[in-house]
TrEMBL record:
It is an enzyme of class 6 (ligase). GO terms for molecular function: arginine-tRNA ligase activity. Its EC number is 6.1.1.19. Keywords: ATP-binding, Ligase, Nucleotide-binding. The lineage of its organism: Bacteria, Bacillati, Actinomycetota, Actinomycetes, Streptosporangiales. It comes from Actinomadura algeriensis. SUPFAM superfamilies: Anticodon-binding domain of a subclass of class I aminoacyl-tRNA synthetases. This is Arginyl-tRNA synthetase. Residues 112-219 form the DALR anticodon binding domain. The keyword Nucleotide-binding applies.
């Protein structure tokens, strides 16, 4: 599940509560969801609607935390959902471009482009020897990266809604920096880590497309 999936499940839970007479108000089409950690999502939907949060939480298999409905998703499931969805966060946000030069880590555009190329390289290097599979366990650096991958759809939607690329660009830069750490410390030598590299390729590739730049597998 991604934040969009969680949002849809929460909206469905509100509709179900309304149908059963447990809620008497307007059912929102879009439910806000915030990323609180790797695979951890929270929503203030119950607070905003004035409905008992337990009513919503039990319908989505979540819990209540400080009045928020919290949904915890297995990190392997989140990575698999991201890498297998080619439309993850796709939209258009015009009016932004990083500099092409210098091609050093002082240039955030290079950091993002090189991270995309590195993810592509990791997938090619793994080849048939490490078919993408579930990420059964994750190191701390990988958990940071997974949390940022989960935040991407929200930042992409914000950028599209506000016609401002900055939220998206900042997210891409954070994902890229986190992936460089993972690439160095946690090589894609097994199926789960190949899946993580594929998720990074999807997010960075879609993010670059959103700002009108063609992702490059080699730079």
């Amino acid at each position: 599940m991604t934040p969009a999936d969680v949002s849809a499940a929460l909206a469905a839970a509100v509709r179900d509560a309304a149908a059963r007479g447990e809620f008497a108000g307007d059912v929102p089409e879009d439910v806000p969801v915030f990323v609180r950690g790797p695979g951890v999502f929270e929503s203030p939907v119950a607070l905003r609607l004035g409905v008992d949060p337990e009513v919503i939480a039990r319908r989505v298999g979540g819990v209540v935390s400080r009045g928020f409905v919290r949904v915890v998703v297995d990190v392997g499931e989140l990575v698999d959902r991201v890498r297998s969805d080619p439309g993850y966060g796709v939209a258009r946000v015009p009016g932004f471009r990083w500099d092409e030069w210098p091609r050093t880590f002082e240039n955030p555009g290079f950091v993002v482009r090189y991270a995309y190329a590195r993810a592509c390289w990791a997938i090619r290097w793994a080849g048939a020897g490490a078919v993408a599979g579930p990420l059964e366990s994750a190191e701390p650096d990988e958990l940071v990266l997974i949390s940022l991958l989960g935040d991407f759809p929200g930042r992409a939607a914000q950028a599209e809604r506000e016609r401002d690329a900055r939220p998206l660009v900042l997210c891409l830069e954070k994902v890229a920096v986190a992936y460089h750490d993972v690439h160095e410390r946690c090589p894609a030598t097994d199926g789960g880590r190949v899946a993580l590299a594929e998720a990074v390729r999807v997010v960075l590739g879609n993010g670059l497309n959103m700002i009108g730049e063609t992702p490059r597998e080699r730079i």
